[in-house]
Amino acid sequence: MTSFDLLIKHAKLVNHDAESPTPVDIGIKDGLITEIGIGLDERSAKKVVDSSGRVAYPGAVDSHQHWGIYNPLDLDAASESRASAQGGVTTAISYMRTGQYYLNKGGSYLDFFPEVLDLCKDRAHIDYGFHLAPMTKEHLSEIPVLISLFGVSSFKIFMFYGSHGLHGRSNDQSSFLMTPPDERYDIAHFEFVMRAIEKARQKFGDRADSISLSLHCETAEIMSAYTKIVEEEKKYSGLEAYHHSRPPHSEGLAITIASYLAHETKLPNINLLHLTSQKAVEAALLMKKTFPHIDFRREVTVGHLLADIENSKGVGGKVNPPIRPRSDVEALWSHLKAGEIDWIVSDHACCKEEQKFGVPKEDVFLAKSGFGGAEYLLPGVITEGIKRGLTRPEIARLTSFEPAKRYGLKNKGSLRVGFDADIALVDENVTYKVTAANSESTQEYTPFEGFTLNAKVTDTFVRGNHILENGKIIGTATGKYQFRA
What we know:
- The mean pLDDT is 95.
- By secondary structure, the protein is α/β, with parallel strands linked by helices.
- The strands form four sheets. Strands 1, 2, 3, 4, 5, 6, 15, 18, 19 and 20 form a ten-stranded mixed β-sheet that branches. The chain has a five-stranded parallel β-sheet with strand order 10-11-12-13-14. A three-stranded parallel β-sheet has the order 7-8-9.
- 33% of the residues lie in helices and 21% in strands.
């Protein structure tokens, strides 16, 4: 009789609070870690993988992706989950909303969301969940049902959508967002979203801690004014122009507004997404000091930690908020090392070349916003983080433990007995250059092209299922939807 379905031998094990001083064996059965020790009997396992001294990190919990934003959702669920596995990601939480892009539909989430789940079923190679954005008054009334019936515990506000579209100016809300013509997606709506979520938190009692609201913090009026200035002056081009058109103080102002609304509505669980600049983090820290009763969490992306307006050539790196100058990149790393950032994500949004670029291709204002990057999440953070003095446990905390804890993934984020066997084996003794051709994503380019990395995910396991072996996807799609809260 076998004790393990899978036995990983000789792995240097990392968790958010410690790493093993010597290589250990990890025994897995029925998708869970059942034993961790030295010298576990290989004869008791159906399958044995020798880690050969590679480092076993908890599978990354990438809590910021966008499946289906530019490509059909079912296709993204397949291809972009494979790309995620290359980056050591074992669970992705993707943002989803009604309106243009995604399913290009409006209406009730009670009709919309079951279609989302059906399109992803049996397609993903990693586990997955969704954050939902309440766009209408009808959606506010549906929040308790979305929590209880579908296990959706996190919601989102796009603060700039009121008068600024996904890629630029947009005054026609009802067309872009597919909202009723007599409703506005504005600051008042944001307040009512917060009140509705807090009301739901009160209803669900013991599950309240895992119910939160995330915010994309940029200010539409500031961006509209500065976009006009940049376009008229023609002083800047490419990613530098986009940075100036959406200046950092736009983030800071939006964070301030959102934070006061959280205080007003007594909503304590607030996630400030993809902070990109010194000014954005300063504003976030100031709001934490001003409203200490609000549990603010601060997020950064691997893209904003690796790329800047100089080293990312062309306009393929256009994203919201923008890639910033090197001084802001260095500021983000300083705040990471100071323990002032809570987690790191990819903000993965696959946008194929034919969709991404306008004519002329070099015009950043004609390009679409967003790019993939989940395949570089653990490799990028480990490469740059260790170089800058982050410890492996700190990396595990930032890429796995903290997002799992915040978003109600209670069985993920740690390599301990009883937890899901979500594991990334990483070779930290390798040097290679990034090339888009090696990615499983359907995106044909990457703003990280030519970047040098010193860590590579060789093998990825999701609940003990070996989905990436020696850098190649193997097996069928076994990812499961995660019912949170």
